[in-house]
Amino acid sequence: MKYDIYGMGNALVDMEFEVSDAFLQTMGVEKGFMTLVDEDRQFELLEYLRGERSARSGGGSAANTVVANALFGGRSFYTCLVSNDEMGDFYTQELARAGVDTNLAERRAEGVTGKCLVMVTPDAERTMNTFLGISESLSVDQLRPEALRDSEFVYSEGYLVTSPTARPAVAEAMRLAREAGVKTALSFSDPSMVKYFRLGLEEIIGEGVDLLFCNREEALLWGECRTLAKAVDSLRRIAGSFVVTLGGEGALIFDGYALHEVDPYPVAPVDTNGAGDMFAGAFLHGITHGMTYAEAGRFASLAASKVVTVFGPRLKPEEYAKTLAEFRGGL
Q1: Contact at 8 Å (CB) between 279 and 69?
Q2: pLDDT tens string 197-245
Q3: What pTM did the predictor assign?
Q4: Which CATH architecture group holds 3-10+64-104+137-330?
Q5: Where exactly are the structural domains of the chain?
Q6: Which string of DSSP letters, residue by residue, matches 280-329?
Q7: Average pLDDT for 181-203
């Protein structure tokens, strides 16, 4: 196979700021959620944040995941949509530097590349206000079936459920994958996706996925229950295997036969943005490179513990190899 992961998701340039809880309350921003906003609203928030400490990076949930796999030494393809503006140039170059193949070599359309305003409070919680821009128009036209069929996994972020063109594109990618014997993987991405777009997620999931990623809150919302045990039962009905991340408590992994509890690596987090994406990227890298689900879970836990100690959703490129070497040295 040419690729470990064929990913698809929103292409967003992250603009990250440290803010107070008071700022979120004053500006009417719902803490801890990803909220879709128009360009004017995003500009309004940026005007208030002008002069504050900030960082810019390539982002998007699934993009962070496929980049992680690539920088750990894997092979990734990413289907996305950016425009021919400066932000689009920046985003395309970021993926190329990470060694990720994309559909972006073709002529890019006029428009505005999507941007995500990430606001991080002192408790390390991330809150996102996202203007999708041209990414909202992602469709089956951007799929590359040859690359998809030549992959071990097709992986999509749940955020695509909000787009009337991207949602059927994901469903089509899942159909093509099943036909070709390619395993399917999906991340719920954010509690708001489960809370407000459940029917769309059910459309994407269809007859079920091989691997599902979610956090505790998303699992409870999906199961419409209050206990993790009941949530696990509901996840078993839609996924052959799954990962439930539990923040500072580690993770729970079902490999299709048994449940595995994964211990956390205790750290003092400064920014949780990208933690779930990193976990998924490290986990997928692990299971496509000879690790068991339990081993991949421990590796992913280590990798996620690294990214929450830095500002931004990704590590420096050289840190990926160091993290993998550290994990292998501890086996």
Answers
A1: no
A2: 999 999 999 999 999 999 999 999 999 999 999 999 999 999 999 999 9
A3: 0.94
A4: 3-Layer(aba) Sandwich (3.40)
A5: 3-10+64-104+137-330
A6: HHHHHHHHTTT--HHHHHHHHHHHHHHHTTSSSSS--HHHHHHHHHHHHH
A7: 97
